[in-house]
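Whiteboard transcription, Tuesday session. T.W. wrote the structure tokens on the left side:
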């Protein structure tokens, strides 16, 4: 198979199953483990990758033109892990990156690996677009994950913990406690731990227990007879989730220092207390990961009730991974593998606690954390008095005067909350409608909506109950708002409501006026402090009418709305993106400037990737800023020479979605809730909104796009081989960190 020599013309070969299978070559090999060791200057020219790609008569591309989605996501987790080795980050933040990596890997196994295993159970058949068999994907994941997790614990034991010890922050082992501390630990075990432990013997009357997903457990080996004269040599001791995993020793035993012990050490040291008259010959912690994806039929009659049942099933899904410590004997680990029906490559031996996510502790050492900063309020809203009535120019007055843009976390989340509170208590406000994807009953957003309902406003909340791992919280939010008198809608069965919309209807001088907030991120105050997101406040008539129509779609029935300015999935967004790329292709073919910049979390949708390949071959300059997954191969000779891909991993989680098209000088710029993925474009309700105000347009373009393209410290670039490489400044080049530039703007020049 050879690359198409003309690049722009379809290959004359027909697409066949054999050709697709043949394209599954070493070009798809992603098993190379890499962290921060490889670096290059942001100005270095990347060598084009040579791949024998092919374009077929129907316009599609051969399977080796794509990177496997799961392997690409795993590479993102490695970029997060690399942050723990970066001395630029404060020490406790480096520990936090290790913890984030653990949490990411938990979800990766619970959802991604579990999904591949499910496919394998239905046959080891290559899938599109990447053309790899499930067994091959699982093999590469195992190779990478085992090496990455070993590296994670090496970083913990050789870098992070010794540096913490220098600051007198310690996780003390059992043999490091003095006599007084050991006596305290025993009392703690007897008084606080032992009453809630339930040892379970393994014998004919007690089969191996059904263990909860990701729970900490101990496999205990024994000698002797129990109270009934039975020879029992194995028992399982589950660690109750109600107990803290990290226990701070009392100040009087440490001189006020940050000294801690792990719950696992407490149980291990005193596990013999659970088996009086018997001898404990071994105690080994282990942890089982299960499939945690939910499976809801599209024809369920009551989503809330169906979800409640599925949430219980999530705790006991199919087994996908077993973690044990490095000193666990083979006979114990093999016994556990047999009990869980897992293979040896699904066993992960770790040199430390089996769940690093539980290392998280609120250490009171500000010098080892990021320096706090002020989340500023945009100038337009700083001039307003929110509580003195409309004569003092309320937020509604400000929005009538012009659009206001917020960029979190650099801008505060408070204007969104303030707008809702003002609406809840404003006698002129008739109705409030809002989508909620991730929230919580303690959220001020939810509290304000409840107050508005109690004040007689028509409040409608479209709550997405299926937001992954927030399902239980969202059910609680729905119940709370219903009790307050709000109308709660669960969206459309089969389509997650992922759009971020708020609509306020107000009567002004006997006329109805609408006010809108649209965002790229969730209405979640906590996320807004650590995720980068855009939000637009507007009273634009067309946009407000469009949002009104979308809420009608979500709560009622009828054909797709005919919108004037907004793009929305699953109806117009994908088609419009294809159309916009086609426009750039036509301009490039006419010899005109053509330029596309896209910043999203992930790019996996095949038709968009194919269209970007077409655009590259036509001469369109394409710059992609992707946080995590990328199935597109950039910088491949003849295929994607004009496409570059970069990822920025820093203090804040990059979450903004921005789409820019030069459009022959009539530039288009949209912010939205949708990534360029199948699920977002075809199976979710999403909204993209134009930024039309010239000043705000310039702000998003310069700060949200160009700023990130200039990053030469926290940026990583993707080669066509699938390898990510970290950037660094050239010898004569100043360091440019995109997030630091935005923080500097907060502390100095206003963002707008």
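and on the right, the sequence the group agreed on:
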């Amino acid at each position: 198979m050879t690359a198409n020599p003309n690049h722009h013309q379809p290959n004359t070969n027909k697409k066949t199953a054999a050709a697709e299978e043949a394209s599954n070559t070493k070009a798809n090999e992603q098993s190379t483990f890499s962290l921060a060791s490889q670096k290059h200057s942001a100005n270095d020219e990347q060598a084009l990758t040579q791949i024998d790609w092919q374009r077929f008569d129907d316009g599609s591309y051969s399977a080796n033109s794509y990177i496997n989605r799961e392997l690409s996501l795993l590479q993102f987790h490695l970029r997060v892990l690399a942050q723990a080795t970066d001395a630029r980050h404060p020490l406790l933040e480096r520990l936090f990156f290790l913890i984030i990596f653990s949490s990411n890997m938990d979800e990766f196994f619970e959802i991604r690996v579990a999904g591949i295993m499910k496919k394998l159970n239905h046959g080891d058949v290559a899938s599109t677009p990447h053309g790899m068999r499930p067994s091959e994907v699982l093999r590469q994941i195992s190779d990478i994950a085992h090496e990455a997790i070993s590296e994670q614990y090496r970083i913990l034991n050789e870098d992070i913990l010794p540096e913490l010890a220098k600051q007198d922050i310690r996780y003390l082992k059992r043999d490091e406690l003095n006599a007084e501390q050991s006596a305290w630990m025993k009392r703690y075990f007897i008084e606080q731990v032992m009453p809630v432990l339930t040892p379970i013997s393994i014998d004919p009357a007690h089969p191996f227990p059904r263990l909860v997903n990701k729970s900490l457990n101990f496999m205990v080996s024994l000698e002797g007879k129990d109270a009934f004269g039975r020879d029992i040599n194995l028992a399982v001791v589950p660690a109750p989730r109600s107990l803290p995993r990290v226990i701070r020793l009392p100040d009087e035993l440490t001189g006020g220092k940050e000294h801690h012990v792990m719950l696992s050490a407490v149980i291990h040291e005193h596990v013999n207390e659970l088996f009086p008259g018997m001898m404990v010959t071994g105690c080994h912690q282990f942890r089982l990961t299960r499939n945690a994806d939910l499976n809801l039929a599209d024809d369920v009659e009551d989503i809330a009730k169906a979800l409640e049942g599925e949430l219980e099933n999530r705790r006991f899904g199919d087994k996908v991974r077993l973690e044990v410590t490095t000193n666990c004997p083979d006979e114990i680990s093999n016994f556990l593998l047999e009990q869980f029906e897992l293979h040896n490559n699904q066993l992960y031996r770790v040199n430390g606690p089996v769940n690093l996510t539980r290392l998280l502790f609120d250490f009171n050492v500000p010098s080892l954390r990021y320096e706090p900063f002020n989340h500023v309020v945009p100038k337009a809203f700083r001039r307003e008095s929110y509580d003195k009535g409309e004569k003092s120019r309320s937020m509604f007055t400000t929005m009538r005067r012009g659009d206001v843009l917020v960029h979190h976390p650099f801008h505060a989340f408070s204007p969104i909350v303030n707008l809702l509170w003002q609406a809840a208590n404003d006698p002129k406000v008739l109705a409030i409608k809002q989508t909620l994807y991730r929230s919580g009953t303690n959220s001020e957003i939810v509290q304000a909506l409840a107050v508005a309902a109690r004040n007689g406003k028509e409040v409608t909340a479209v709550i997405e109950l299926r937001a992954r791992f927030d399902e239980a919280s969202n059910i609680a939010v729905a119940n709370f708002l219903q009790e307050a008198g709000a109308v709660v809608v669960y969206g459309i069965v089969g389509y997650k409501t992922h759009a971020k919309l708020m609509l306020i209807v107000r009567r002004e001088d006997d006329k109805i006026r609408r006010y809108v907030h649209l965002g790229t991120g969730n209405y979640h105050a906590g996320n807004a402090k650590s995720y980068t997101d855009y939000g637009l406040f507007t009273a634009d008539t067309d946009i407000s009418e469009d949002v009104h129509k979308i809420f009608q779609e979500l709560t009622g029935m009828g054909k797709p709305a005919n919108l004037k300015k907004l793009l929305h999935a699953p109806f117009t967004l994908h088609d419009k993106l294809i159309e916009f790329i086609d426009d750039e292709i036509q301009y490039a073919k006419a010899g005109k400037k053509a330029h596309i910049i896209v910043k999203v979390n992930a790019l996996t949708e095949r038709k968009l990737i194919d269209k970007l390949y077409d655009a590259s071959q036509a001469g369109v300059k394409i710059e992609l800023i992707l946080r995590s997954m990328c199935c597109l191969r950039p910088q491949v000779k003849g295929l994607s020479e004009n496409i570059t891909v970069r990822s920025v991993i820093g203090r804040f989680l990059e979450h903004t979605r921005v789409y820019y098209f030069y459009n022959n000088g009539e530039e288009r710029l949209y912010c939205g809730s949708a990534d360029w993925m199948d699920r977002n474009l075809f199976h979710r309700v999403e909204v993209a909104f134009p930024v039309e105000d010239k000043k705000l347009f310039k702000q998003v373009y310069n700060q949200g796009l160009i700023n990130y393209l200039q990053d030469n410290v926290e940026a990583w670039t993707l080669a066509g081989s699938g390898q990510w490489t970290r950037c660094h400044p050239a010898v004569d080049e100043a360091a440019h960190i995109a997030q630091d530039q935005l923080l500097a703007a907060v502390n100095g020049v206003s963002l707008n």
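Someone added at the bottom: The mean pLDDT is 88.
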